[in-house]
Amino acid sequence: MIDKLVVVAIGGNSLIPDPRNPDIEWQWEAVRETCRHIADMIADGWQVVVTHGNGPQVGYIMNRSEVAKREAGIHEVPLDLVVADTQGSIGYMLQQALDNSLRRVGMNHTVATIITQVRVDPNDPAFDNPDKPVGGFLSEAEAREAEAEGWTMMEDAGRGWRRVVASPKPLVINEINAINALVLAGYIVVVCGGGGVPVVRNEYGSLRGVAAVIDKDRASSALAQTLRADLLLISTGVERVCLDFNTPREKPIDTLTLEDAGRYLAEGHFPRGSMYPKIEAAIDFVHSGGPRAIITNPQNITRALRGETGTQIVPGGAG
User: Fold this and answer.
1) Rounded distance between C-alpha atoms, residue 252 and residue 254, angstroms
2) Which distant-in-sequence residues (6+ apart) come within 8 Å of 184 by Cβ?
3) By the 8 A CB rule, do 190 and 108 touch?
4) Fewer Cβ within 10 Å of end Cβ, the chain: N or C?
5) What pLDDT does 271 receive?
6) Which residues are catalytic?
7) In terms of C-beta density within 10 A (0-12 exposed, 13-18 middle, 19 or more buried), how is residue 18 classed?
8) pLDDT at 319 (0 to 100)
9) Are 87 and 54 in contact (CB under 8 A)?
10) Percent residues over pLDDT 70 in the chain
11) Do 305 and 8 touch, CB atoms closer than 8 A?
């Protein structure tokens, strides 16, 4: 039996301390720090399932792919394979760092990564309105060439042109039976990396990947609901959620009821490109019956579990 089950969703950006200097050793250190806090959770009796983002890492691979295609004629790497690649590489880093952290606190657990496919609806409206930027910046001339090859391009705030893809809603975690079996057997699993590899079933019932990305917070919430987790913990770049973030009126929030969270979300307090999907994921989890969700940064995970910091999303109000 599992006493306390938590899904820990690690942001891809939180694994890169300085985006201007994404040296792999700095990424390793960020992974190790995060895993030290996760090991403390496990030592405290939590059964942990880990998910993670991959936005910056996908961007690096796509940049290398685009440069290799232009300068050496090497084939482009399809987006579904890029997501799978990052599931393997980030999963490897988390496996190794978490194994080492657990041994330091006198525990011996097997950590395993599952390359996870997440089924989406091929008729999801997101496919008609792709808006998720991926890859590097291009000139307008390069963007027009990419459009001729079938890409959808969008100008990004005067910084250049970027490819945009759909971000459909996650429907079914394809490997959920394997995930559940490993969790029940006491393994620590790393799953749904980057929101999972988005796949659809074709007219013959066969799976195939699609050029899209799934928001990892939405996928993590769906996973936590399916596993009936006791807690959804979203690890991101800030200690607490704030209203009027980065303004003189900035106000950190300790606790949000469902009613308040939904109201603030509707009022536009949380930008869609940053905190919006995290609040939305927390609302979905708690609304579905989850006891609570926490949003905080890696170094404050232990304190947030004790209620000393972080933002708690709990049932309450009319929500």
Assistant:
1) 7
2) 2
3) no
4) N
5) 80
6) 12-13, 132, 216, 278
7) exposed
8) 44
9) yes
10) 95
11) no
